[in-house]
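#onboarding

Welcome to the new folks! Below is a worked example of what a typical request in this channel looks like: someone posts a single protein sequence, and someone else replies with the predicted structure as tokens. Don't worry about understanding the tokens yet, we'll cover that in week two.

Example request:
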Amino acid sequence: MKDVVEPLPVTLITGGLSKEMEGNFRSFLKSVGISAELNLHAIGNPDAEIKASGLDLVKVKQYLGENNWWYKTK
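Example response:
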């Protein structure tokens, strides 16, 4: 039997999300079929925390990079 590799989820944190950016981000996730956990924190500078893995993680990082959104890995 071959070994199976399961991708580990990674948490990304973005900063400075406006309502428009939040809407765009949610639309992106829905359009590419990513079922990710997205938590928004509105205290202080609104940010989002998203947990994704595998190809979904790659797609999210590409989207954030294409839109020049700051993010860090938690």
